[in-house]
Amino acid sequence: MGLITGLLTLPLAPVRGVVWLAQIIQAEAENYDQLDEPSILAALEELELAREAGEFSEDEIEEAENALVERLMVLRGVGGQESNGQVG
């Protein structure tokens, strides 16, 4: 992208970011059954880097994190169980 194009489309940057995030979430949803624990943890690390870089809003990051954490909980077999603070 050239300098002029970048400057002229700068107001659309948040929209491009939301579209990119939606594409990532869609890809993750399509690969839901294929995700393993290491890839989920790597995706969470990528989201943390994106948060630190300020690439997305906190709500967008939180939504993506929640989806990944839910999948991780399902893989670990702890989804949907109330522990009331008890471990084990």
Description of the structure:
This protein is mainly alpha-helical and 88 residues long. It has a domain at 33-77. It is 68% helix and 0% strand. Helix 3 packs antiparallel against helix 4. The protein is elongated and about 50 Å long. The relative contact order is 0.12. The model has no long low-confidence stretch (mean pLDDT 79).
List the helices and strands and how they pair.
Layout (H helix, E strand, L loop, with lengths): L2 H6 L4 H18 L6 H17 L4 H19 L12
List descriptors.
88 residues; mainly alpha; 4 helices; elongated
What is the helix content? 55-70%
Elements, N to C (H/E) = HHHH
- Taken as a percent bin, the fraction of beta residues is under 5%
Shape: elongated
Indicate the structural class.
mainly alpha
The counted number of beta strands is 0
Summarize model confidence as the mean pLDDT.
79
Poorly predicted residue ranges = none
Task: Determine the N-to-C terminus distance.
Answer: 53 Å
Q: Report the total helices.
A: 4
Instruction: Report the biggest beta sheet as strand number plus sense, adding barrel if it closes.
Output: none
Radius of gyration from CA coordinates? 17 Å
